[in-house]
């Protein structure tokens, strides 16, 4: 945060606290009596008059105590721009402390399964219960609570894997993450609209869904120039590159003409964040076994 905004926030916060204090003091000072009277403010609304009576003492002192508490809190904790507070507390530090306590408390439980091979681990009920919780906390946001994915997020319960569904591939994906990149127009950036239509029809022809058989026939040549480098001459994909199989019924971004055309024209970028550094090696081993079990 810049110095200007730090000062700006501090002035607003302290101005609010001292402003409330001054308002209480000024209001109290102008009152001539601490007891209730029949004196009114001279206002009358539909026959109802407003009395000029002081706040009850307990209420007044409670307001003052609130102001004092606010100043004490701001002295101890961050709340005035870049000022860190006398206690040096931060949400990041609190999180790190809690994570350290959790590691000390549960680390032995994870370590018990850390050296077990993934296929064997997938057969251990206690480990899978732990894996399900790890999945729910770290993966379900994208892949869904049941691991069935959604538009742009792979289904983990089938046998179609962009980067491979064997234990080593799953572990690599979890540790290092994945960066998917489908370039617009593939390797043919000067593709015309007519050629886009042709290659889309060609891809649809793999499942007998082409709109225009003549366009699909011409699209084979466009595919050879723009797509074959990644998806292969047989369009079966390439797991080393994360290029999907175009001949099956599994589509990450939709399989209609319009969806495929949008993919060809605009490309696709997707990222699977690395869990290494966020989770321990033992936790990743258990999580990998749980993911492996979803499709096995």
CATH homologous superfamily classification of the largest domain: Cytochrome c-like domain
Unreliable residue runs: none
Shape: elongated
Rg on CA atoms, Å: 33 Å
CATH architecture field of the largest domain? Orthogonal Bundle
- The helix-strand sequence is HEEHHHHHHEHHHHEH
CATH class of the largest domain: Mainly Alpha
Helix-residue proportion: 40-55%
Q: How many helices does DSSP assign?
A: 12
GO molecular function, one term: electron transfer activity
Main location: membrane
Subcellular location: Cell inner membrane
Subunit structure: Component of the cbb3-type cytochrome c oxidase.
Defining traits:
Cytochrome Bc1 Complex, Chain D, domain 2, 12 helices, 296 residues, 3 domains, 7% strand, two-stranded antiparallel ribbon, mainly alpha, two-stranded antiparallel sheet
What does this structure look like?
- The chain has 296 residues and is mainly alpha-helical.
- It folds into three domains: 3-76, no CATH class; 98-177 and 273-294, Cytochrome c-like domain (Cytochrome Bc1 Complex, Chain D, domain 2), CATH 1.10.760.10; 181-272, Orthogonal Bundle (Cytochrome Bc1 Complex, Chain D, domain 2).
- 52% of the residues lie in helices and 7% in strands.
- It has twelve helices and four strands.
- It has helices at residues 3-29, 57-76, 91-111, 118-121, 125-138, 140-143, 167-176, 193-205, 213-226, 228-231, 257-266, 281-294; strands spanning 40-45, 48-51, 178-182, 268-272.
- It has a two-stranded antiparallel ribbon. It has a two-stranded antiparallel sheet with strand order 3-4.
- The longest helix has 27 residues, at 3-29.
- The two termini are 50 Å apart.
- Residues 126-207, 214-295 form the Cytochrome c domain.
- Pathway: Energy metabolism; oxidative phosphorylation.
- Heme c 1 binds at residues 139, 142-143, 272.
